[in-house]
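Hello,

Our lab assistant flagged a job as stuck in the queue for most of the afternoon. It eventually completed. Since we weren't sure the result was trustworthy after the delay, we are filing this so someone can double-check. Below is the sequence as submitted and the structure that was eventually returned. Let us know if re-running is recommended.
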Amino acid sequence: SNQVFRQIDFYNKKIVALNENLWLIDYIKNNEKIIYPETCRNFKITDDYIWLNLIDKVKLINIDSVEEWMYDHNDGFINIEIFDIKDDEGWVYFLTNQGIIFYNWSNYHF
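-- returned structure --
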């Protein structure tokens, strides 16, 4: 790819990369496609899912089916700025300007 990325990770022998879009790059087949066409701060891959940091909300995308879920003010993300997303054994946590938000997402998405 001739793109310049600020974050990359690997998923099933493919590269997930972020610049002004989120890309899925198959380096074996020399194929690349945009999987999220908007800006996000960063992302975290957990199993077959990508968590997108949209600064004041997060989006969860199933990489294989492309099904999406949005977590926003309706889910308790009120007046926050999300800096980073981490995960640990079925839990995802969001590092925010108001502290850490923990979410046991494996109860709902496995």
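-- support follow-up --
The delay was a queue issue, not a problem with the job. The result is valid. The chain has a mean pLDDT of 90. The chain is about 5% helix and 55% strand.
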